[in-house]
Amino acid sequence: APSRFRPWFEWRNPQEDNVDIVFGHWAALNGQSSAPHTHALDTGCAWGYKLTAINLKTKERFSVPCQSALRM
């Protein structure tokens, strides 16, 4: 995407600075987000990589290898 475009999670409302956003369905991010209080969980399980979850209380992430990948 052109550099002037930003992902939706970078458009934060300052009143929500203490609100965590957890999202998936964006495997290209490989579970990484640089936005504060934002947790990307899609680590490509459908493509044979990992399935990732988060403990909402501690923010600790857990990943396991996927047993099978999406067949296209």
Automatic annotation (TrEMBL):
Q: Which InterPro entries match?
A: Metallo-depent_PP-like (IPR029052)
Superkingdom to which the source organism belongs: Bacteria
Q: Which Gene3D superfamilies match?
A: 3.60.21.10
How is this protein named in the record?
Bis(5'-nucleosyl)-tetraphosphatase, symmetrical
Q: Which organism is it from?
A: Coxiella burnetii
Q: What is the lineage of its organism?
A: Bacteria, Pseudomonadati, Pseudomonadota, Gammaproteobacteria, Legionellales
